[in-house]
Predict the 3D structure of the following.
Amino acid sequence: MDSTVWALLLSAVSISFIHTASGPDHYLPFIVISKSKKWSGMKTAVLTVVCGLGHVFSSLILGFIGVFLGWQLNKISWFQDIRGNFSGWALLIFGGVYLVYGLVQAIRNKPHKHFDVMGDDVYVYEHNHSEVVMPQTRIKVTPLVLFMIFVMGPSEPLIPLLFYSGVKHSMSEIAVLVTSFTVTTVLTMLGMVLLGRYGYSTLFNTEKLERYMGVVSGAVVTVCGVGMVFLGW
C-alpha cells in the first residue's frame, strides 16, 4: 500500500476507535443489561456485534454520500486537472471545521446520554448538567432500543475520508476505509463490553474523553489533510 492508503487507514482506525471508546453509551448499557438480566457471554457478545454493525451501517450511509458526490465530480472533464489538490484541500478544510465544532461543543454544556439502573431494568435519557430529568423522559432500554440508538448515531468524520477516495475514483481506498472502520468499531465495542462485564476497568476515564471526541476526530482528519496537501502523502 502507498502512503496515501496508509494515511487513510490510520485515520479511519483512529477515528473509529476514539469515537467508540470515548462514549460510555457504546458499551455501558450492554454491561449493565448483561449483568442485570444474567445473560451469557455469548448472548452479550452477539447483541454487541449486531448493534456495532448497525452503528457502522448508519455511518457508511453518510460516508457513501461523500463517495457519490466525489464520484460525480470526477465525471466533470475540467475537474480532472484539479481533483488531486481539491480533494486534499477539502479534507483539510473539513477537518479544520470539525475541529472548531468539536471545541465549541466541548466548551458548551452539550446534552449527552445517561443510563440509569432501576432494579433489573435500564433506562436511557439525554440531558445537560443544568437540567432536572423527569421520570417520563426516560426510555426503558431493550435490545431493539439499543439497536436503534446505534443506528441513529453515525460517525460524521468518516464522510471526508470517503469523499476523498470518491474524488480519486479509488475502489481500493474505499474498501480499506470501510473494512478498517467496520472491524475497529465492532472489536472496540466488543472489547470494552467484555472488559466491563468481567469486572475489569478501562485504562482511562472515557466520560471525560467523550467531551473532546469531536476535537480529537477533527484533529485526526486535519492532520490527514495536511499530509495530503503539503507532504505528498
Notes: The longest helix spans residues 41-74. The beta strands are 112-118, 121-127, 139-140. The first strand starts at residue 112 and ends at 118. The two ends are 12 Å apart (CA to CA).
